[in-house]
Each structure stands twice: as C-alpha cells, then as structure tokens.
Amino acid sequence: MPEHFTPEARAPRLSRRAVIRAAAVTAAVVGVPLQTWAAGAHPAAAAPSAAPELPAGLTAYRTPYVNWAGEITHSGLWACAPRTAQDVADLANWAHREGWRLRARGKAHTWSPLTITGPAESDERVLLMDTTHHLTGMELVTPPAGAPGAVRAQTGVLLETLMAFLADHGLGVTNTPAPGELTLGGTLAIDAHGTSVPAAGEAARPGHTYGSLSNLVLSLTAVVWDTGRAEYVVRTFHRGTDDECEALAAHIGRGLLTEVVLQVGEEVPLRCVSRVDISSDELFAAPGSAAAGRGNTFADFLDRAGRVEAIWFAFTDRPWLKVWSLSPQRPATSRPVSHPYNYPFSDVLPTPVARLAGRLAAEGAWFLAPELGLAQYTVAATGLTATLAGDLWGPAHTLQFYLRPTTLRETANGYAVLTRRADVQRVVSEFVAYYSEQLKSSALRGRYPVNGQVEIRVGGLDRPAESAAPGARPPLLSVVRPHPDHPEFDCAVWIDVLTQPTTPGAHAFYRDLERFLLRTFEGGYALTRVEWSKGWGYTDTAAWADQEVIGTVIPASYGRGQWAEAVGILDRLDPHGVFGNDFTDRLVRV
C-alpha cells in the first residue's frame, strides 16, 4: 500500500509585546519537573535485563514511557517497531508462547493506564510496539454508496497527517480531537471525539458523523486468535456484517488494529470566532434565569453554530469561548489560515505564566492558583488580539487542531454526560454551580486543588444512520454509544477539569466531583459515562482505583447486555490476554 507523508487575584499585566515575544520563543516549554512526574510512585523496577529474541528479525530496544501528564512512567521497557501486520501477528504468537504481553505505543498522549500501569509494569514482561515507524501508510479507496470518500490507513499514522492528506483531496471529517499528534490507532481505541452537533437548520452531510471517530469505521484489520489454527492471525472485519468490528472499533486497549477503512465526507471550510467577554454567570446560566434570557448561553451558541467549546480558567469569571461554524466562503472579517495550531500564546507560555506554574509545583505555592488562572486568562485575551487569532477561517482540519505537545502538561478528569439537546444548558449549569461552589469553599479553607481549567464541549452520539455501512451498529464500548433504555438522549456534554499532576487534594476534589456527576446525572434526564483516556474512578488518593466505579458503575452505564456482549467478543478474539494489562484485566470483564 503506498505511503504518503504528505477570580480575584493579582497577576502581572501582560503586554501585547510580551505575548508576541513569548509566543515566538519555542524553547519556553512549561512542564512538570522530572522528579515529580510520578508523584507517589516507587522507583521503576528494571525490565528483564536480556533483550528478548523476537521473531522475524525484529529487534528489541529499550525505551522510556511517559504519558501526557507524566503520571504514568517507566524508565525503560523493551520495545520494537513492527513493519507489517504479519509482524504483529508473529509477535502475538511469540508473546503467547513466552509469557509476554504486547502494548501498542503511539505518542503516549493519554492519561489513563490503558497502555501501561506504571513503574512495576516491567515485572509483567511487557513489550511495547511503536506503530509510528512503519505502520503509517494511507490511500484513498472506492467509497460505499452514501459516502463521498473512503480512506484506508494504517494505525500508526498521525491524525494531522491523515487529515491533511484528506484535505488535499477535498475530503474531511466533522470531529477530531484538539491535538493532531495522535495516532489513528490510539484515537480509535478510546473513541476520540471533537465538538459538534447540528446547528439549527443544518442538514446532515453524507460521509460525516457528529459522533466519535470510531463511528466512521467501515472495516478494520486486527490481530486475533484463530481457534482452528490455534494461533494469532491477521483478519479483516466489516462493519454491519461482523460483530467483531463493532467491538474492536473502540476496544480500550483490549485489541490491536493494524489498518482501518474510514468513510469520509466532503471538506467544508470552518470559521472559528473566539470570545473572552461573556461572563461565566451568563454563559453557564440556569435555563429560565434572567441571565439566560440575554441570548448568550452555551446552548444559544450551540444552536447558532453547532460547534462550541468553553475553556474556563480557575478563579476567573470570563471563559475563552470558541465557536466554529461551517463557512464555505471566507467572511470579510476572518483571517485566512492554511495550517493548524493558530494559538501560539497557548502552545508556548509567556514567562509570567511559566513562572507561576513553576512555583506551584516546585515550591508548593499552591495558594497562587488564583493568580495562575488570571494570568492564563490574560494571556488568552491578549494573545487573541496580538496574533489576530480571534476570527479565523480555513480548511476544517487547520482549525480543529489547536493543541501542540509544547503546551502546559496537566492532569485531567473526563466524563461524557448523555442527554437531550434541549437539556444541554441544564447539565452545564448544574455542573458549573457545583464546581464553582466546591472551588470557592476549598479556597476559603486555604486549599487549592484545581489550578487549571474547565473544558466543556458537546458532541453527537454514534448513530448507525450516519454510517454508510448497511446494518452498522454503534461501536459497543464507545462512550457515546446510544443507551438502549434512553433513545431520547441525542448528544453528550463532555466535561474535563484540569490541574497540575502533583496538586494536593486534587484526587479528593475529583472524587467528590465524580460522585456528584454520577449522582446527579444517573439516567433520568442525563447519564454520566467516563471518558476512557482521562481520569476517573477516584478515591481520595488515586485515580482508576474505585472498584465500585470500575466493576459496577461503568458496565451499568452501558447496559449490562451491551457490556457483556463487548467483553465476550474481545475475550474470544484474545483469550490469552496478550493485548492487555493488569488494569484492563479488571476493567474489561463482566
């Protein structure tokens, strides 16, 4: 197959010149100090000292592993770079014989332990497979009826590379995550999403989905166990025909895909307008309130454009609101762009923000959280003007990708609240009211468990009607799979709260927030599900540790029958657990 690489706080005032200067200094990357990456983790155990003898001439090499926020790390695991799908099958058979486990490793842009669980992982004899070296091919293929285009792509290709390739052929997708440096395989494993629902009067577009990227899958090729041959083999499954396809399209680390065929639609340029002048009281107002009557609520913007995101820095009162809209022609006031990542002030932080973030982590000056929040807001508000980024227009992928790896690395919880479109503002306002009160009451006690931002987006569900594959069902473990008992739910409110990884009290804050979400949105007018790649299952000291959430709450949020079907298929495809780890062993079970 051919390959193509084609609140109240005191903060320093940031001048326009300072913002521009800081945005140009690409070396000014803010991160968590190495010694704090894995707070509370014991030193990494050594991986097996002798290099494993791999099949088919593959060579093992040592590589460290550090996830996005540096909370899950290892100083050196054995890894290799498979060249073909058959290499992966050979590795799976080798791992089965030798008692090893295989984990796909792309760009490690994840928070949850779906790849490795931490420093002790080496005791389990784990081999990482880096798909980004060779499994990166892509080509257009004949689309099925109902889709303008289709692309066959190997799973190590980066999203930004794939989307640029599609755009060169007049094709694209409706939803992508904000970072472009993610592998296709990683995004499908956790059913990655963007932010979009139909605007008022917007007609569905062939080939597109308002749901997750996993809902675009037409077929996929995976390494699975063949009972008759008693070995792992490469096999292709088709959407709407093979139930295995619906299970593997969002497998949360319990499978390994080597190639997929995705439907795509015609590319339509987008306009993105940013605003920082609407108060949180107005944007997140309760339905029916006087503030909501002014026409500037989150739901109002959703109706107008269908594509909205609010980034709300801690202890501030004016969120950064982004509103994307379909715009075939460039509006006169919009600045045209031809490449992604158009907010340099967000990617490379100015010195005042960097210093504050550094003091919080290095000096334990967590009381500076209000100053950091205000500084971040000031940078965004000033930077939008200084870089002429408040009103942008261009190819869809150039505005959908806006988060570089050089941004401030924070930990994040993540949830999708399924609800009716008519109840989006209710969900948002109730969450915001709880979060604001908890943040305020914590500060009054001298505690600052959150020093990052809240991010709120809204996306569609994985509707089979949006698939061009006849007989398609939603991916079985997709977070935005429609719930069988709630056909009235037609969208999901995505909620993330970010903070620096070592912040004292963060886990307890997240635990209480999670319990609020699960208690409040428990299936009446809304239902909470966890976002696979983020933080969830909190105790007062750790994430992914609440056994009730893992073993009971999560399966119930899908419906027991749906969950059991998915687990049964994944177990059948990998009965020896070659593709898994101790965490997925506990999670993906009935």
Automatic annotation (TrEMBL):
<keyword id="KW-0560">Oxidoreductase</keyword>
<dbReference type="GO" id="GO:0016899">
    <property type="term" value="F:oxidoreductase activity, acting on the CH-OH group of donors, oxygen as acceptor"/>
</dbReference>
<dbReference type="InterPro" id="IPR016167">
    <property type="entry name" value="FAD-bd_PCMH_sub1"/>
</dbReference>
<dbReference type="InterPro" id="IPR016170">
    <property type="entry name" value="Cytok_DH_C_sf"/>
</dbReference>
<feature type="signal peptide">
    <location>
        <begin position="1"/>
        <end position="38"/>
    </location>
</feature>
<keyword id="KW-0285">Flavoprotein</keyword>
<dbReference type="InterPro" id="IPR006094">
    <property type="entry name" value="Oxid_FAD_bind_N"/>
</dbReference>
<dbReference type="InterPro" id="IPR036318">
    <property type="entry name" value="FAD-bd_PCMH-like_sf"/>
</dbReference>
<dbReference type="Pfam" id="PF01565">
    <property type="entry name" value="FAD_binding_4"/>
</dbReference>
<dbReference type="InterPro" id="IPR015213">
    <property type="entry name" value="Cholesterol_OX_subst-bd"/>
</dbReference>
<dbReference type="GO" id="GO:0071949">
    <property type="term" value="F:FAD binding"/>
</dbReference>
<keyword id="KW-0732">Signal</keyword>
<protein>
    <submittedName>
        <fullName>FAD-linked oxidase</fullName>
    </submittedName>
</protein>
<dbReference type="InterPro" id="IPR006311">
    <property type="entry name" value="TAT_signal"/>
</dbReference>
<keyword id="KW-0274">FAD</keyword>
<dbReference type="InterPro" id="IPR016166">
    <property type="entry name" value="FAD-bd_PCMH"/>
</dbReference>
<dbReference type="InterPro" id="IPR010031">
    <property type="entry name" value="FAD_lactone_oxidase-like"/>
</dbReference>
<feature type="domain" description="FAD-binding PCMH-type">
    <location>
        <begin position="71"/>
        <end position="267"/>
    </location>
</feature>
<dbReference type="InterPro" id="IPR016164">
    <property type="entry name" value="FAD-linked_Oxase-like_C"/>
</dbReference>
<dbReference type="InterPro" id="IPR016171">
    <property type="entry name" value="Vanillyl_alc_oxidase_C-sub2"/>
</dbReference>
<dbReference type="Pfam" id="PF09129">
    <property type="entry name" value="Chol_subst-bind"/>
</dbReference>
<dbReference type="InterPro" id="IPR016169">
    <property type="entry name" value="FAD-bd_PCMH_sub2"/>
</dbReference>
